[in-house]
Design goal:
membrane; transmembrane; mainly alpha; elongated; MAL; Marvel
C-alpha cells in the first residue's frame, strides 16, 4: 500500500475525491436542465469510479517500470481532465443561467444555488487536479 506514495503525482489520485464532491452536490440539487447536469453527473461518477480502480491498480504495484502503464496513466488522466473541463463549463453556465430564476424562490432557490456554486468550484478544482496529474504522468512516461 505504501507504494502508492512513491511519487509525488500519486498523491493527486487521492485528491481527486473532489470529483466525488461534485457528484454529491449535483445530486443534491434540482437537475434542471437535465442535459448539461446529466453530463456533469456522468463525468463525475465515471471519473470517480475509474480513478478509484486506477488507484487500486497502482497501489498493488503492478505498474512499476512499465512504459505502457505510464502511457495509459497519461492517456486516462488527459481524457478525464478534458471531460471535467467540459463538465465544469456546462455546470457553470447552468448555474449562471439559473441564478436569477432560482433565487426568487425563497424556499429552495438559495439553497440549490449555493449547492450549484459549490459544485462548480469543486468541479474546477477536480479539473485542475486531473490536469496537474496529466502533466506529471507525461513527465514520468517520458522518463522511461
Amino acid at each position: 500500500m505504501f507504494q502508492l506514495f512513491s511519487c509525488v503525482h500519486d498523491v493527486y489520485m487521492l485528491l481527486q475525491v473532489f470529483g466525488g464532491l461534485v457528484w454529491i452536490l449535483v445530486a443534491c440539487t434540482l437537475v434542471v436542465p437535465e442535459n448539461p447536469q446529466g453530463w456533469v453527473m456522468f463525468v463525475s461518477v465515471f471519473c470517480f469510479v475509474m480513478t478509484f480502480i486506477w488507484m487500486v491498480v497502482f497501489a498493488c504495484g503492478r505498474h512499476h517500470n512499465k512504459a505502457s502503464w505510464a502511457a495509459a496513466d497519461f492517456l486516462y488522466h488527459g481524457i478525464a481532465a478534458f471531460f471535467y473541463l467540459s463538465a465544469s463549463v456546462a455546470l457553470a453556465k447552468v448555474t449562471l443561467d439559473l441564478s436569477g430564476k432560482q433565487s426568487n424562490n425563497t424556499t429552495t432557490g438559495p439553497r440549490n444555488y449555493k449547492l450549484d456554486v459549490s459544485a462548480v468550484v469543486f468541479s474546477y478544482v477536480a479539473t485542475l487536479l486531473y490536469f496537474v496529474h496529466t502533466i506529471l504522468s507525461a513527465i514520468r512516461w517520458k522518463s522511461f
